[in-house]
Each structure stands twice: as C-alpha cells, then as structure tokens.
Amino acid sequence: MILSALLTSVGINVGLCFLFFILYSILRNQPINAQLYKPRLVAEGKFHEENEFHVERLLPSVSWVKRAWKPSEDELLSNSGLDAVVFIRIFIFSLRVFGFAAIVGILILLPFNYMGNQLSFDFTDLQNKSLESFSISNVDDGSKRLWIHFCAVYVFTAVVCYLLYFEYDHIASKRIAYFYSSKPRPNQFTVLVRGVPVTSGRSFSESVEGFFSEYYPSTYLSNSEVRRTRKLKELINEADKVKKRLAGLKSENYTQRRLGRSGFMGLFRRRIDLQDHYEKQLEDIEANVRTERSSVAEKEVPAAFVSFKSRFSAAIASHLQQGVKPTEWVTEQAPDPQDVHWPFFSASFFTRWMCNIAVIFACIFVTIVFLVPVILVQGLTHLDRLEKWFPFLKGILNLKIISQVITGYLPSLILQMFLSLVPPVMIVLSSIQGYIALSQIEKSACTKVLWFTIWNIFFANVLSGSALYMVNILLEPKRIPELLAVAVPAQASFFIAYVVTSGWTSTLSSELFRPKLLIWSFLKRSLWWKSDEELEAPSNPYHSEIPRVLFFSLLGITYFFLAPLMLPFLLVYYCLGYIIFRNQILNVYVPKFETGGKFWPVVHDATIFSLILMHVIAIGIFGLKKVPLASSLTIPLPILALIFNSYCRRRFLPSFKGYPAECLINKDRIDQGDPTISSFYDKLTTAYQEPAMKATTYYETSESSSAPLLRGAD
Description:
Subcellular location: Membrane
Membrane topology: Multi-pass membrane protein
Distance between the termini: 69 Å
Transmembrane segments: 6-27, 86-110, 146-166, 353-377, 389-410, 417-438, 450-471, 483-504, 549-581, 602-623, 629-648
Structural class: mainly alpha
Radius of gyration: 29 Å
Helix content: 55-70%
Number of strands: 6
Number of domains: 2
Number of helices: 30
Keywords: Calcium, Ion channel, Ion transport, Membrane, Transmembrane, Transmembrane helix, Transport
Mean pLDDT: 78
Family: Belongs to the CSC1 (TC 1.A.17) family.
Strand content: under 5%
C-alpha cells in the first residue's frame, strides 16, 4: 500500500470521527435522548429532565470530557465495580507502554530507518512511496544501525515486563481490598452442587439436605433446589411485554392510538381494539402460567445451591471432592444470584463434556469460514490482483481517488464488518459449554474472540499474501521466524489503516455516538406505537472490547521496532478510548455481574504472547538483515519472557482463582460482630430461588380485576 492511500484512509476516518463527536456532543444534551446516551443515570434515577428550552442544547459541548475525566479510581470502583476499574487500567497500562515505545520508536528508530538505503527512495515523490521506506526494511543489510534496534527490543521488553508486574500487583491488591470493603454477598457463602445421585424414595432436595447436614453439621445453612422452569420463564417474559404495551395504551399519550392492527408491524391484518386484544392475551397467559406452575415442582434436576454460615466453609466445600465418585456431588463456587445462567443446570457431566468438544470443532469451523473475507480483503489491497480477477473494472481502478479508497479504506472497513459478527457467535458457543454464570460465559467468549482475532486478523492477513507461506510453516517450522520476518513488515500499512478504521471510527466514535440505537430509537418514536418500551441499560461489552484493545496492543508491540510509524495512531486510540469508555461506564453501562478483576490474567497472558511474537520476528529479521550475532543474542528473550510469566502466574494467579483462607477467616470474624448478619442469613435461604419461582408481580386484565397472575413461591 502506498503512503497516499494510507493518508486517504486516515483522512476519511478523521472526518467521520469529528462528525460523530460533534453529533454526540449535541444529541446527548437533548432530554429525549437520555435513555440512549445516559441509560444508566435514567435507570438509577439520577437523571432529572429539564423541560425548559435552552439554546446551549443545540451547541456542541465537550463538558462531558471533564466529567468523565474527573472521578478518581476509588470513585469508579464504588460506582461500577472492580471489573470496570480493570478495564480502564488496560488503557492506562497501554498508554504507559506505547508512550515509552513512541518516544524510542519515533525519536530514535524511525530516523535510522529513514536514513537507510536498502530501498530506493525519492524525496520528491514521498506520498507515492511504500510505508516500508520508514520501516526496518529500509535499513541496509549488515548495518551496525541494526544494533540500535536490537537494544531497543531488549529495553522495551524489560519496560513491558516491569509494567506488567506493577499492574498485576496493583490489581491483586485492589482485589483483596475490594473483598474486605464489600458487604456480605450470597455467592461468598454458597456453592453449586451438581451430579446429585438419584436415591429411591427421596427427592434431590432431600438428598442434598441429608448429605450436607451429615458432613457439614455445624456450618450447613440451607439449600435451594433447581427446577426446569424454561417454559414458565418464557410465559412470564411474554406477560411482561404485554403488560408494558397495555400500560402504554392506557396512558394519555396513546389515547388516539388505541385502534390498530395485529400482526407484524400491523400489516395485512384486520383492524382491532388493541386494549381488548392485549387484555384477552393476558388472560390466556394467566391460565398457562398457573398450569405450568402447578407442574414445576415435579421438574427437579440433580443440582442445588447449598449455603453455609461462613465463607471459609463454602470455600472448603467448593474445593474438595465430596463423594467417592468424582462425577457425583460435584461442587463449585456459586455466582451472584443475578449472575446465574439457569438453562444448563439439567445437563449431565457427559452432556457438558460433549458440548465442550462440539464447541471446539465449531470454533475451528468459524475460523476457517472467516478466511474467505480475509482473502477478499487482501485482494483489495493489491490492485493488480483486482484487475486480473475483474478485467472490466480496469478503467475505474485507474482513477486515483478510487484506487486510494479501495486500497486504503475499504479493506479495513470490510474486515471490521465481518468481525462484528464474531462476538455474538462466541457468546452463543460459550453459553452451551455448561457454564453456570453469565460472567463465566463472557470471560470464555472474551478469550475465544481474542485468539480468533489474533489468528484471523493478524496471522491470516500476514500469511495470506502467498499460500507458499502457510505450506512452508507446516513443512518447516524452523523457518517460522524467517517467514514472519518477511511477511509481517509488508503488512504495516494495512494494519495502520485497520487501527484507524476499526479503532478510531468503528469502535470509539460509534461507541460514543451509538448510531444503530439512535436510528432504532427514532423509528420507534416516529413509526410504531411501541415507544412506551424503554431502552434497557446495556452491560459492559467486555467480551468484544477487551479482545480489540489487546489486539491493538499486539500490533503495537509487534511493530514497535519494525514500523514505529504505527505507534502515534495507537496512542490516539488509547487516549480517546480512555475518556470515551470512562464516560460510557459512568453514564451508559450498568454492571450485570462482578468477577473481581478476573479479566486481568487474560490481559497478562495476551501481552506475554505479544512479546514472544515480537522476539520471534526479531530473531528472523536480524537473520535476514545479515546480523547473525544479534539474531542469536535475541533467542534468550522469549525464554526469559516465559520464565517471567511463570513467576507471575505463581505469584499472583492463585489470588484471582479464589480468596486466601486468611482473608476468608478474617472477614468471617468481622461478620460475627455485625448485627445485620442474622437478617442476611434469612435472605440467603431464598437468594437462589429461580426468578420464575419467586415472582410476585401482579397483572390486572381489566380495571376491576384484582386477581394475581403470578404468586410467590410457597
């Protein structure tokens, strides 16, 4: 890709970013858009609508930047939890890493690359030159200047490892402090038991109570059985939707919209009285719910939530094998009640094992299928290939502006469009693996999306230039450093364009502006009567955003000494991301779960992988540049990185898998003097009842009706 095409891509994306920022600054001041741009404040009752018109609302303002910057880390912790703090710490860590990298790369390495003579370079035709003229490829073979790059790799590795250790230690300390400052939570006292054996003449609930009363007589508190309530939940959800629609029809704003048409968007159906229609629909749902509730008690599954009187007892029960057979009485720490993923409790050990195998093959299949758009994108970056594949486009492709847009902007845009489909797919695959918590599903999906992105966006793009690369890697693994050293620098311009398109525009600006939801909200208000349904405040999209941030980190680490020109673009992304996501966490996203910072080990492992990848490429590039001594002296670096990773895993990772006995016992002792602990135990006995079983919502089918549709669980 020539430099002019890259500049065209950057110019387009800068324009889009500026437009999105201006529109957001105006739209967020409009009270009608509060549920779109401030749904968390609306949900928590912190947003107060002003009915008076002010001209200032029509003018763009950046006051939101100051409000997003102002809260301290402790305020963010108390407001959004430790997971949100860890997410923001990823940006802080990246800014520190690439701030140092930019100083070394731009001020030291880039001038040495620029002064090389390996590639022909004409200063009068700068914009039509390849980006390789500013990369290590332009340094002369065997030049002593390559030792500057060698020293930079060593120093950069040391700095990244130091910052990794500092962040790991900081977040581990925050995790312990957050635990001590938290109030008693049900998941700290509860374990999930699966694989309850069938006992003749006894229900699963009676078997669980008998087992734990016998072996944990002094600390066992209670148990909550799990039942199959999927159909009941669907009925209740349907009733909720109908109730909201009925309430909207009865409001003053919709008295003239009472008559309508049934069916999809009201098309091709007879005209009816909507209020009578939905009242009749509620009556039918009421009958179905009562019928289903009467049969739920007989639908027990071999699983239960078992609560104890202390955190320490729950931790012991979750880590020890309970029965002689390892597939019976299987225990694990329970998630928070609102974090529980209910659908998979009835699955047996064998079913969960088979689902895990199926998910592995499904991930492989998705990865292979995604190679199609990758090959398409790589074809767009080479005009000669397009002219060969589509000869009739030769005249259009010869136009300068068209060729620059196609080679500079379009490939990254197409790749981003296909990549946006991956996170939802990975969420679905993770949800059928047998996880019991939404947080576990999201963490698993985060890991899947991360490695999918690394393989399909980095390696597939790097190696898809020639099928010979992939064949050589399979046949001669020893040549991997050499092959990567040839292929990776050649894709620098593509990845810079990808950072600008995917990072600046598709992620940050769209994250702030939320164009899809804005259009959907406008259509609901303007065209359909369903405008009484409020937009639900979304949860933090960790499974999609953390992999993207870490992938950009991989690009920055890998290209640090290869093409330092990428580093300023990454710094802009991390600076904008830091402010934008602080704003979103404070105003938009509502935490649906709390893992206690368990996403950080994923960040640590991904960073170590990026360092090792940089080392492998460095070994190959120094060999190709005919500096064999530098290549040999780089070999210890990946070994040292693995040793450092092993130390960090032993030093910090156990604290992220569970809390130490010292902390659990101390916290239990503190609770002994808490006068509210007895009332907490009372609530704990019913905390893990399924939502459908403890529903106490009442629906009226008419103004005179007072019969409850749903009753509380007995």
